[in-house]
Amino acid sequence: MADPLLDVRHLRVEFPTRRGTLVALDDVSFEIAPGEILGVVGESGAGKSLTGAAIIGLLDPPGRIAAGEIRFDGRRIDALPYEEMRKVRGRSIGAIFQDPLTSLDPLYTIGQQLVETIRTHLPVNAAEARRRAVRLLQETGIPAAEERLEQYPHQFSGGMRQRVVIALALAGEPRLIVADEPTTALDVSIQAQIISLLKRLCKEHGAAVMLVTHDMGVIAETCDRVAVMYAGRIVEIGPVGSVIHAPAHPYTTGLMGSIPAMDEDRARLLQIDGAMPRLTAIPSGCAFNPRCPQAFDRCRVERPDLLPAGATRAACWLHAEPLRAAA
Amino acid sequence: MSAVVAEIEPPLVEVEGLAKTFDVSAPWLNRVVDRRPRQFVHAVDDVSFTIQRGTTLALVGESGCGKSTVARLLVGLYTPTRGRVVFGGVDATAAARPTSMRRRMQMIFQDPYASLNPRWKVREIVAEPLREHGFGEGGEASATDREKALVDRVGALLASVGLAAADAEKFPHQFSGGQRQRISIARALATEPDFLVCDEPTSALDVSVQAQVLNIMKDLQGKQGLTYLFISHNLAVVRHVSDQVGVMYLGRIVEIAAKATLFAAPRHPYTRMLLDAIPDIHMSGRARTPVQGEVPNPLNPPSGCTFHPRCPHGNDRCRVERPALLAFGSARVACHAVEEGRI
Question: What angle is formed at CA A286 by the lines to CA A284 and CA A292, rounded to 5 degrees?
Fold first, then answer.
């Protein structure tokens, strides 16, 4: 693989509280190649949005990066001063959030917001910025882009707003886009439009994408590789086809089996009993062991790292060398 | 559901020409000053269906299509503008719905964080409908015995949804989303209803928790012969739970058919579009046509067939004439193109 565009190594995010320090992300490592789409999937509280927030430098205090490093194009960005990080954000790394209404300023027209973003990051004059703004809106499939520039966010529907947010994210011509649940607030028919738009535009602009979502269907449609998160750690990472068709971690297997499928009939869905542990009470050993149907003694005491497991890598002792030799 | 059963047993729920109109006009003074007319939203318009005992009818559609309004009309939270609901052979839209009917019909809401009183213990939440409907009253038992029977009943209800009897002494905030939804189900089951109206019961839940709740609902249906009206926007979930599926668009049912028929051979262009919009999780390379446009504003719906601006098969007739829901084989479809054999 060529040099990674984004390289996250042993990232640890902590929240100091009065009752002790909560470790929300622990030893998270992954990389994204230029132009690649990496999906990050997991249930509520798995830490997937937090990973995105740490990368774009928007962790809510008192959350902080306690260990590890984030490199963008070889340069460390996890400890940059605020003003430096502001230049990276938008110019090198664009961001798309879940709710398109809160990502747009209701008091400014779409045109003002686009032009401001373009001129903040690129050395162009006002007329050129406006031309670019129109082109971006046209690219995102907004009809009558010229007139729409003069309108305010409330005059757009939900799907159209998310198109504007995508245009804003692309305005600084970033090489990486962090998209946090970009389609969750939208209806299914609009969701399909936005996903194909995001995929097409990022390809045309040569931007890599980190797509955070809880929807395995969106991942299957969009991504090259996927990272599955559970209780603040990556439990499995690998090519999308392998993770979906031949999951190596019992949690991924359970997650896939619990999704009702359109092309097969099952009387019951596969069920993972229990719920994800709270951050205050993460079990020792593998965090998934109390819910895991295949857990054995080692899982309860020793925490597994990501181990090679077929085409993917999984943090599970089932894939440890001695056991596989014995099997 | 077999055809033989359908002939000998009348349906448990019959809905005929149900309609609900909301007045969303500006206040009187604004209307007079700005010379604005009154405004109405036809949230539900001419909806008819039947549900056989022990089966599930699912209603699907996008935001604002009126599916939740249908749910609320059925349980009596709204009064219909037109049409009627017949439940077990009795008109349920009559002004005075008998209490016994309320006991037999219960509702599960979407948001388990909003539908449980945070100041009440689970025991009180689940016992409320029992007290309301006079559980154990009228007998010879003393008040303490009655209270003991009530506690036992609550414990049994919690056990039936996979919670411990000891959970009765906890407050809702001590439970996760999935467990709270189980409490909602236990509360709904307290009065031994025949019919449960479930309004997006798993939309707020994570997939693994959704699987737990859907499994419980299916098990309960098998054990107690419950009848469900299941409202959802998720076609994969609907396919998993339902026997019959109705697809709604802007307040009307555009297609209603048995599950197997609808998913194998969708007729209405909107149903096809919805099916095409589902992300393909198994990456089978199924060909998909991109979805066109967005749902129009319900305040100002298009003329004729309300789907015509987004429909690839729309013609002049679709723009002016509203299609009726007609039978085609085992399905009922409201579409001129299907009627004329164009698709």
Answer: 115
pTM to 2 decimal places: 0.84
Nearest to B63 among A187, A259, A260 (CB): A187
Contacts of residue B209, Cβ cutoff 8 Å, sequence gap at least 6? A43, A275, B176, B177, B178, B181, B202
Q: Is ipTM strictly over 0.95?
A: no
* CATH superfamily of domain region A32-57+82-223: P-loop containing nucleotide triphosphate hydrolases (3.40.50.300)
Question: Coil, strand, or helix at residue A109?
Answer: coil
CB contact (8 A) between residue B281 and residue A275 = no
Statement: residue B212 has pLDDT above 70: yes
- Which tokens go with B103? 């006991």
B275 vs A contacts (CB less than 8 Å): 262
Domains and CATH numbers, chain B: 3-119+171-339 (3.40.50.300)
pLDDT per residue as tens digits for the range A277-302:
888 888 888 999 998 988 889 999 99
Query: Which among B211, B275, B288 is the nearest to A271, CB-wise?
Result: B211
Strand partners, A246: none
pLDDT at A323 over 90: no
| pLDDT tens digit sequence for A56-109 | 988 888 889 999 999 999 899 988 888 889 888 888 999 998 877 788 999 999
Contact A192 B288 (CB under 8 A): yes
Q: A262 to chain B nearest CA, in Å?
A: 5
The DSSP code sequence of B233-262 is S-HHHHHHH-SEEEEEETTEEEEEEEHHHH
